[in-house]
Amino acid sequence: MESASGVIDAKIRELGGWRGKTLAKVREIMHQADAEIVEEWKWAKATSAGTPVFSHGGIVCTGETYKNVVKMTFAKGAALKDPSGLFNSSLEGNVRRAIDIHEGEKVDEAALKDLIRAAVALNLKGKDKPKPRRKSPL
Length: 138
Known about the structure:
Aspartate Aminotransferase, domain 1; 3 helices; single chain
């Protein structure tokens, strides 16, 4: 079975053009923002090819590709501060937020790295704390 990184490499090659370049750039920014980002390939079914997923302590975001957009969907985006206004899609939800990147658009790399780091910090928040002990029923 091929690694998730290998499958994502193949997806980028298959896409080619601006969508392949954009997904490759998003991937590069993810790893620059957090060296511990893990690449996964999820939700592959007979009817769909699957989705690149970037995780650290939980899902940070996905890298979906559509005909007219490359979409970065942040799993807990609604809980993140976005002072640069990168989120431009899925704004009505209570949990997720997304960034749609269209052909020819440039991404504010510094702001995106800040957003990725904030998403990782949110995922890791509370993971190091010991769970409270239950009182004995006696």
